[in-house]
């Protein structure tokens, strides 16, 4: 923990970014944002101040931070943290400066060089093993173990198939904890619509209200599939069994004469127990989106994308305009 200071009151990690003040703070800007992101900022800021305390760095030298200080901070973490964590912590200090109206004018080339050098020192214990992907056969096995007339099972299977066939993070369709549902940032039934592509093929479209890479939100979609893994049938079953209110969580399920939002923990817990019941090794939740990119249809697109996109690149104004609109306005990759 950092040494006691009137500039750094005791508070939750998500509040440190704006409650912990630099000695020369000029203003406080936007305090909104994803809670998980703010907690991450708080972790990096905590580590920075603990380091400064250990080196007896005066408050006025912590912001505006100097090249020497940030370089020594990076060097102290190399070999103890992953490069990704070190990058995040430096970004946290940067965000702290920006939020309080302070100029960040460090030598980015020098910082980048130090960060690259830290890669070779990354401890093996901080490296995550490769995640096994979900497959359609795996989803079918889960389907066979679930009772889709049961509210929770119906919600879990609909969430699984929607996440998989929409190639989306399961965290975008679940809630962090039971009391965290926020209609402004979480998926609701009112965010779902039926759409058609240029070939008049039906799609189910989901509007994600807020993303890190797209603060104004973005859409994902899926189309009907064949077999037990069909997301259309699973989603229709969920709506029939649970009838979630339009202003509630999308995959809310009936529980004791009320509704309970499907949390990420409950979703993954249910999948884990179901996989074990099917005699299979449980797979990380990250494997859902990974597996969706290994689907035969997606691989066919990767191998034959030129032929698939060719009609949109020909001299047809309407098609060209639509193609450019979808490709030129994509959110930045994170």
Strand content of the residues, in percent? 5-15%
Global Rg: 24 Å
- pLDDT average, as an integer? 82
Give me the count of strands.
5
Structural class by sheet pairing and helices: mainly alpha
Query: Unreliable runs, pLDDT <50, ≥5 residues?
Result: 29-33
- Kindly, what is the distance between the CA atoms of the first and last residues, rounded to a whole number of angstroms? 31 Å
Overall outline: elongated
The H-and-E topology, N to C, reads as HHHHHHHEEEHEEHHHHH
What summary fits the major beta sheet?
3 strands, antiparallel
- The largest beta-sheet arranges its strands as 1-2-3
DSSP helical segment count: 13
- Could you estimate the helical fraction of the residues in percent? 40-55%
Oligomeric composition of the shown chains: single chain
Indicate the topology.
Layout: H1 16-19, H2 35-54, H3 67-77, H4 83-99, H5 108-119, H6 136-145, H7 151-165, E1 192-196, E2 202-208, E3 218-222, H8 231-242, E4 253-255, E5 258-260, H9 264-277, H10 286-292, H11 296-303, H12 305-313, H13 317-328
Helix pairs in contact: 2-4, 3-5, 6-9, 7-8, 7-10
